Amino acid sequence: MKVFQDIAKGNRWEWSPWDVTVGSYDYHEWDLWRARCISYYPRFHDPVMLPIYTEFVNLLRKQQGDRDRWGIVYGQVRGEADSRLVNPRARLEELDRLLSEK
Fold first, then answer.
1. How many angstroms separate the Cα of 26 from the Cα of each of 31, 36, 41, 80?
2. Do residues 88 and 1 lie in contact, with contact meaning Cβ atoms separated by under 8 Å?
């Protein structure tokens, strides 16, 4: 749950990797959030979240995409994280269903 809370609420600055530099106010805090999000990546096996989160991590690392793509992907990741905070039991049942279909 803490992972989803951090993903959904941790970027309180609403910065993208293209908006912030080492000299920016609160850069250190934002960079800690970015590093935590990258470190969560191996935990994702959910077939819905994994492709979105993969792109999110690549954007955080500036390995692909741009500021425009960031807005779309970050919105999707934050939405997925928020949905998991709302009703975790229902989400687990949905995940079990998706995994059983494979």
1. 9, 16, 24, 26
2. yes
